[in-house]
Structures are given as structure tokens and as C-alpha cells.
Amino acid sequence: MAFGLLGIEELTRAEVESILQRARFFQPLQMQSFKKLDTLRGKMIVNLFFEASTRTRTSFEIAAKRLGADTVSITASGSSVSKGESLVDTLNTLAAMHPDAIVMRHAASGAPHFLARHLAIPIVNAGDGTHEHPTQALLDALTILDRRDALEGLRVAIIGDIAHSRVARSNVHLLSKFGADIVLCGPATVLPAELAQLAAGVSLTNDIREAIAGADVIMMLRVQLERQHDPPLSAGEYFQFYGLRLEHMALANPKPSLCIPAPSIAAASCRPRSPIFKGR
After folding, report:
1. Distance separating alpha carbons of residues 232 and 161, to the nearest angstrom
2. How far is 208 from 183, CA to CA, in rounded Å?
3. How far apart (Å, rounded) are the C-alpha atoms in residues 98 and 213?
4. Which whole-number Å values give the CA distances from 18 to 12, 39, 42, 84, 151, in the listed order?
5. What's the CA gap between 60 and 82, in Å, rounded?
6. Which distant-in-sequence residues (6+ apart) come within 8 Å of 228 by Cβ?
7. Smallest Cα–Cα separation from 279: which of 14, 11, 28?
8. Are the beta carbons of 143 and 24 closer than 8 angstroms?
9. How far is Cα 270 from Cα 268, in angstroms, rounded to an integer?
10. CB within 8 Å of 178: residues ≥ 6 apart
11. Would 268 disulfide with which of 85, 215, 249, 276, CB 3.0-4.6 Å?
């Protein structure tokens, strides 16, 4: 099987550290006037997105082009998938194209793993169902390290629609490798008890104030409406109980806490607590 990135859970701490160290090497590139390298010159990267995406797909395209690769983007709405083509059909088409790597987002958990079992091509998981979103967790970890010395010993509150969030799962798997104290918080209907077994150091609460108390890092998740048939709360009720407000920030660690991603304009304006919209 070719090397790729299917999830955080199967990585070792040393592998995570190696990826983050490599990312730091490339980090200053975007601040330079000349932003293109020859690292992937002559390589073809296929971005295969079966779910609607703007930020993630564009981020992968920009990253590949900055490293000198050629990119081909395939979306479900603009491909034969919309005509009924199956994942197996897509697999055979991709094999004929002989790409050097495939970046894949799919609504079905495990879809990238299916491709990886049948293609001798590195697969990068850009989000699969409610399972994982490994590159987002790595980006979150790098954002934390931009502002803190280490990931060890942090108290991290992840708040929102936990049950349907692949970002939450990947962050739990990553941060637990560094011994972080992770508090998952949300309405009871999207916070099943078994989530406490995801990794060591995980606890659950339905009280946002309890979750934020003493937190070093605060991650606010959006409600995954596209994965819910009956949302647990109305938008107004959800914000009343699980919206991050300025008075909550006083409960967090006295040192600057981080809000990832933007939970509200008010909280985003609490600089330097939030890295949102800042240049890297």
C-alpha cells in the first residue's frame, strides 16, 4: 500500500511531530513574494471532492501548485458521479490516469480507505463522513504551536455538534497523543456517552461554562445540518446555550486562549486570544 494520510488515529506521536516540523519549514513560504517551489515538479495531484467544499479544496489546490505540482480537480456535481457512476467506476478511471497522489473528500466514512486498499497511489483524506479530517487537525495543532511552546499539558474545550464532527474526532486523536485534557461539550443529543472512549484524557459535559473553565484552547464547531435529519435545537436555542460570548472568555485560562475556527465576530475580535483572520 502506498503511503498517504488517511487519519490521525493510526499515526504515532513521532509521525505527527515529523509532519508538524515539516509544515513549519514551508510556513514562511506564503509570506515571500516568490511562492512557488519545484518540490513536486512533474507530479500530478487529483483533487477528488464528492462533497461541496470551497476552503478545503482551494487550500489543497494552492498547496500543490506552490510545491510545483500539476492539479486536476474533480467534483461530484461536475463529474460522472452525478450521472450515477459508482465509487468503483471512479476508482478504475483514476487508476487509468496514473496520478501521483489523490486528495479525497467524501460523505461516506471510510471512502478514502476503500480507495487506498485498491490503488497503489497515496491517498490524502480531506474529510470522510463523520469519521476524520486529518489535515484540519494538523492545521489546528500548528496554529496552537504558533502561539504556544508545546501541545503537552493543555486543557482543550471542543464545543458544538461533536457527534457529526470529523474535525472533533481528528483533534481528539491528535491532542490525546500529547496528553492534553480534552473536554467535549454540546447538547446531549449530539454528545453520546461513547465519545468519552475515543481516547485517553477525554471528558464530556453539556455545560459550556464548565467546558471553558480553565481552558487553554477553545474550538467552536458549527452545527452539521447536512448530516442531521432533525437538529437537536433551533438556531436561537443553540446559540443561547452553546454560543461563545465575551463573558465566557473570563472563565478560560488567564493566558491567551484560542478560538478555532471563528465562533462569532465578537469573540474573533478578542485579540490576541483568537488567531482568526491573522496572517501566519
Report:
1. 10
2. 10
3. 51
4. 10, 18, 25, 40, 14
5. 23
6. 161, 164
7. 28
8. no
9. 5
10. 13, 150, 151, 152, 154
11. 276
pLDDT per residue as tens digits for the range 200-216: 999 999 999 999 999 99
SS (H, E, C) 210-245: HHHCCCCEEEECCCCHHHCCCCCCCHHHHHHHHCCC
Give the Å distances, CA to CA, from 182 to 19, 61, 153, 154, 220.
22, 32, 10, 8, 13
CA 21 to chain centre: 18
Burial class (CB in 10 A: 0-12, 13-18, 19+), 154: buried
Among 194, 154, 158, 159, which residue's Cα sits nearest to residue 177?
A: 154
For 190, the grid coordinates are 449530539
121-156 pLDDT, tens digit per residue, is: 999 999 999 999 999 999 999 999 998 999 999 999
pLDDT in tens, 7-64: 999 999 999 999 999 999 988 877 777 678 999 999 999 999 988 888 899 999 999 9
Cell of 67: 510545491
Distance of CA 201 to the CA centre of its chain: 20
128: left (phi over 0), alpha (psi -120 to 50) or beta: beta
CA atoms of 110 and 181, how far apart (whole Å)? 28
